[in-house]
Structures are given as C-alpha cells and as structure tokens.
Amino acid sequence: CCSVCVCVFVVVLSRTLYNMSASDPVICSIKSDPVDMEEVNEIDVEETLAKLKSNDSSLTHCIFNNVPLDLETVDSITSALIRNTSVKRVDMCNCQIIDDSVEGFVSLVKSNSTLEALSIETNKITGKFLKKIVIALETNETLKELRIANQYYTTGVGDEMAISKALEHNKSLVKFSLNWKNGGSRNTADRWIMRNNDIARKKRQGLL
C-alpha cells in the first residue's frame, strides 16, 4: 500500500512540475504562454522600421504581435535588425510569417550580437525552416530566448530530432519553445537548455 501511495505521489508531483504533454510547448520545462490573438496592436510599423534602420538607441523592444506583415516588410525588418545594435527583444507572433521569410531570420541569428530574445510563435513556418533557424544558433553567443511554438503546420519528427541535436551546439539559449511530438527529442532539447541555464548561473556567480 505504501509503495503504491509513493508511486501515485511521484506521478502527481511530476505532472504538477511539468504540467504538459509531449506536444506542449517547452521553455526549459515550462509551458509557453501563447500570444493573445485578440489583442489590438497599434504599432506604427513604418515608424518602427525607420527607427530600426537608423539604429535609434531608444528602441530596445519591438512588438509586432498580431500585425499581418507581408513578405517585403518582414524582410525589411530582419535586414534592419541584422545591423541594429540597440534592440534586445523582438516579438513577431501571429504576423502571418511564412517560410519565404526564414532566410532573413537565419541571417539575423547568425549576424546580430545584441538581440537577446526572439519570438516568432503562432505563424506559418514549417518544421524544415524552423530547423534552419535553430541550426543558425551554432554561431550565436548572445540570444537567450527563442520561441517558435504554435505554428500553423506540425513539425515532423525528423525535423524535431535535427532541432534537438542542433541545440547542443549553442551555449547561450536558456529559454526555448516548440510543440514537440517526439518525447525523446523534447528530452534532449530540454537537457541542452538546462545545461545552458547551469552555465549562465555559474557565470553570474563568477565561476566561469
């Protein structure tokens, strides 16, 4: 009877700590909070883009959430961000971003050394192209948070495996979101993110 009680307690505790299924978005073992798709965003896209291009130091956080952006506009934003040294956080959730815009994000992740957080959740990017963004992290040492969950298309198991493998080569990312179908890939990814959190903690303590 006692052993059964202990077993039940462990299962309940585990579900409480993780509170997710294999398909839930994972951010270092914490569920992602999807953007409110009903929230009205009154951002002036053209004005913000002009500030990005001029490297306006007052602009450190760009929030384009819930604003439909065409391919040309997304490409202009990512191109401006590549050369920008002021913006530390970019949120582009539910902006109707598609695969054709991904190369701009790949170049951004490879080239920008200021950006610390990028969220492109709830768009229309396939697993094949999400994988390209994560692979680009190999040369990035400053991005701490990448959110790519809740895409319109389901990510294939093969792409999930490649994504989890690619995360091994990045040491800066401490938060990462993706809807996983494959539990093994999710566990692998979570292990690398936890490793990075440990590295970050040691750096804060002056141990590295």
Walkthrough of the structure:
This protein is of the alpha/beta class. The chain is built from seven helices and five strands, in the order ααβαβαβαβαβα. A five-stranded parallel beta sheet has the order 1-2-3-4-5, with no helix packed on it. Strand 2, helix 4 and strand 3 form a beta-alpha-beta unit. The protein is globular, with a radius of gyration of 18 Å.
Spell out the blueprint of helices and strands.
Layout: H1 2-18, H2 45-53, E1 61-63, H3 71-83, E2 89-91, H4 102-111, E3 117-119, H5 127-135, E4 145-147, H6 157-166, E5 175-177, H7 183-204
Parallel strand pairs: 1-2, 2-3, 3-4, 4-5
Strand content: 5-15%
Q: What can be said about the biggest beta sheet?
A: 5 strands, parallel
End-to-end distance: 48 Å
Secondary structure: helix percent:
40-55%
Count of beta strands: 5
Brief account:
This protein is α/β, with parallel strands linked by helices. The protein contains seven helices and five strands; from the N terminus they run ααβαβαβαβαβα. The protein has helices spanning 2-18, 45-53, 71-83, 102-111, 127-135, 157-166, 183-204, and strands at 61-63, 89-91, 117-119, 145-147, 175-177.
